[in-house]
């Protein structure tokens, strides 16, 4: 058996972080940090966080998680392809490390809820949180199951641009993580009953 030895490494630029399996340990880290920060904040929600399994082979963990929680609104936290990865063409991916989390406009498993998408963009702009757009003609995230739960769940994907995903030497930017967490905390504070009901109506 051969196993790559790839310890977590802070690069020469200390904002760049290298590790194995950022896809999707960074999503788990974001969820944990959002929960930690919400402990000190007033907000109108019961917030659930789940680390799912078998996303790459059929979104199976996402299906069971959505069945268990039956969410009113859902966010999938994932990685996205960084367009400044050597060898990636501009038409293949546009996002760059350090320019903000990615807001997914569509992928092969989901087109996001328009109202929730607009709320995410408005919140980021209101708080001057940098963000980038992303789209994937192929592939998907756990959002592909979340949005189909029950009669439908407004769902968005917020991802962190990452170089060399699906490798043992993935690289991402600390600021993108921080801005993604800030955005999620702000959104959860905004999602009161009236806002959620408005999303479900249209």
- State the secondary-structure class: alpha/beta
> How do the SSEs run, as a string of H and E?
EEHHEEHEHEEHH
Provide the domain count.
1
Give the full name of the CATH homologous superfamily.
Answer: Zn peptidases
The largest sheet is: 4 strands, mixed
- Give the quaternary arrangement of the chains: single chain
- Which term fits the overall shape? globular
Identify low-pLDDT runs. none
Give the tally of β-strands.
Answer: 7
The helix tally amounts to: 6
Query: How are the strands of the largest sheet arranged?
Result: 3-6-4-5
Helix content: 25-40%
The rounded distance between the terminal residues' Cα atoms is 53 Å
Q: Rg to the nearest angstrom?
A: 17 Å
CATH architecture: 3-Layer(aba) Sandwich
Mean of all residue-level pLDDT scores: 95
So what's the CATH class? Alpha Beta
Using the coordinates shown, work out and report the CATH topology.
Aminopeptidase
Strand content: 15-25%
Explain this structure.
The chain has a single domain, classed as Zn peptidases (Aminopeptidase, 3-Layer(aba) Sandwich). The protein has six helices and seven strands; from the N terminus they run E-E-H-H-E-E-H-E-H-E-E-H-H. The chain is globular, with a radius of gyration of 17 Å. Helices cover 35% and strands 17% of the residues. Helix 1 crosses helix 5. The mean pLDDT is 95. The chain is an alpha/beta fold and 202 residues long. A four-stranded mixed beta sheet has the order 3-6-4-5, with helices on one face. Strand 4, helix 3 and strand 5 form a beta-alpha-beta unit. The chain starts with 8 loop residues before the first strand and ends with a helix.
């Amino acid at each position: 058996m051969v196993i790559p030895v790839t310890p977590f490494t802070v690069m020469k630029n200390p904002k760049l972080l290298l590790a194995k399996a950022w896809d999707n340990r960074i999503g788990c880290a974001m969820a944990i940090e959002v929960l930690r920060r919400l402990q000190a904040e007033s907000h109108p929600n019961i917030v659930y966080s789940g680390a799912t399994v078998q996303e790459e082979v059929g979104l199976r963990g996402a299906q069971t998680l959505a069945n268990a929680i039956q969410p009113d609104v859902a966010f999938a936290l994932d990685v996205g392809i960084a367009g400044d990865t050597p060898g990636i063409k501009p038409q293949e991916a546009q996002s760059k490390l350090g320019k903000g989390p990615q807001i997914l406009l569509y992928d092969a498993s989901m087109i996001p809820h328009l109202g929730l998408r607009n709320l995410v963009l408005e919140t980021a702009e209101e708080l001057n949180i940098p963000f980038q757009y992303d789209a994937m003609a192929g592939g998907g995230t756990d959002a592909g199951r979340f949005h189909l739960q029950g009669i439908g769940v407004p769902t968005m994907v917020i991802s962190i641009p990452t170089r060399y995903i699906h490798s043992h030497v993935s690289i991402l930017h600390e600021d993108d993580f921080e801005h993604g967490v800030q955005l999620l905390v702000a959104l959860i504070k905004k999602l009161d009953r009236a806002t959620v009901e408005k999303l479900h109506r249209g």
